[in-house]
Specification:
- This protein is mostly helical.
- It has one domain.
- The protein is 79% helix and 0% strand.
- It is extended and about 60 Å long.
- The N terminus is likely disordered.
Length: 146
Amino acid sequence: MKFQLAALAVFGLTLLIPASAAPALQEPPAREKKIRKLLEVAGTSAMGRQIMDTMLEHLSKSADLPPGFIQKFKETANPDSLVELLVPIYLKHLDEETLDGTIAFFESPAGKKFVKAQPLLMKESMEAQQKWGAEAAQRALKALEK
């Protein structure tokens, strides 16, 4: 009931504001557009899908999940929505000069090769990290036994 009253009040207030005072749908600012371009040319959406697939692969092997969870997760998760989470982070940490240089790199032949190699780099890096973590855990357990 409180939610309905609040929504009604907000709706009523919007009727009192002249149309010229309401914010128009605007293009994203230039820096945000550059960030979106950077995320596109850097292959961020593809990486999001790869990370999700790798995570689900490991979960299916090690976690006690309800039947059908992996399939339902794949159906409902949207790796492209990762971009929406990343934009404010990139806005916070990257200036326009850095964005311009990074976009130029990813649009260059070397940058395109890097993006093409990235799925294998990520996959093999994750495998190496898991191996390293397992070995470190074994060493720690052995040290505790002594």
